[in-house]
Amino acid sequence: MKYSIVPLLFSMLLIGCNSKKEAKTSEVENQKKITVDPSIDTSINSKVAEEQEFSVSPISHATMVLQWENSVIYVDPIGGVTAFEGYNVPKIILVTDIHEDHFSVETLEAVSGPETQIIMPQAVADKLPKDFKGKILVLKNGEKKQIKGFTIDAIPMYNLRKEVLKFHEKGRGNGYVIEKEERRVYISGDTEDISEMRNLKNIDIAFVCMNLPYTMTVESAADAVLDFKPNVVYPYHYRGTNGLSDIAKFKSIVEKDNKDIKVTQLNWYPENK
């Protein structure tokens, strides 16, 4: 009997090693699943943003899905339920403005779940049917709320040039700063290089618009970014009346003047591949 315990102990040790190996393999395989969104054009060195416990998947133009730890956030969801196939029901939805490239009643109805909190300015809330009232939270420019583990701050977004003031008047729409555990993410919405953007502090990740005539030039966007100095910036909302803005130029201006700011281009317009 004293000899039979040796192979038994060896077998137990082997099983333990295999179990650890299988667990490690499973962990690696799970990590590999959080990779590049197939809708993104890798030919322009673009990929899903994969910061620590944070990722972003562009849907189109102003629309995106943020995965922040275990929370899913939709920004300006349009395109119907098919645009969000493969994504989990959001914990939070952020809507910036009333225009159809940011706001769709049908899409909000299709993608929101019973526990989804929808954040929006009053101008958007005024366009919703009555059965939405229990799901929404209205934030005015400058208001800040604690929502489902996040701090959400409504930032002004508006035009500066006289000839385009009609597109985005001050006080109607919201940009947002979302914060959790000292990570701060800025979403510009439709705006020019306003002082409220330039004076932002401690922004880790920024999504900045740039398209004419509705928002601003790539030069103005770059100049604002160089003022508030986010760690990472993603150009988005860059299709205007004359096509796509020159994102490569934006990247060149920013990185030439401040090499500490990382500019990453994602493909927000897969139809143009």
The overall average pLDDT, rounded, is: 84
What is the total domain count?
A: 1
User: Uncertain runs with pLDDT below 50, 5 residues or more?
Assistant: 1-48
Corresponding CATH superfamily: Ribonuclease Z/Hydroxyacylglutathione hydrolase-like
What would you call the shape?
A: globular
Content of β-strand: 25-35%
First-to-last CA distance: 72 Å
> How would you write the strand order of the largest sheet?
1-2-3-4-5-6-7
Spatial extent as radius of gyration: 22 Å
Helix and strand element order: HEEEEEHEHEEEEEHEHEEEHE
- Per the CATH scheme, the topology name is Metallo-beta-lactamase, Chain A
Could you please describe the fold and organization of this structure?
The protein is α/β, with parallel strands linked by helices. The chain has a single domain, classed as Ribonuclease Z/Hydroxyacylglutathione hydrolase-like (Metallo-beta-lactamase, Chain A). It contains six helices and 16 strands. It has helices at 5-33, 105-111, 122-125, 195-198, 218-228, 247-257, and strands at 49-51, 54-60, 63-68, 71-75, 92-94, 117-120, 136-138, 144-147, 150-157, 173-180, 183-187, 205-208, 232-235, 239-240, 243-244, 262-263. The protein has a seven-stranded mixed beta sheet. A seven-stranded mixed beta sheet has the order 8-9-10-11-12-13-16. Strand 2 (54-60) and strand 3 (63-68) form a beta hairpin. Helix 5 packs parallel to helix 6. It is globular and about 50 Å long. It starts with a helix and ends in a 10-residue tail after the last strand. Residues 1-48 have low confidence and may be disordered.
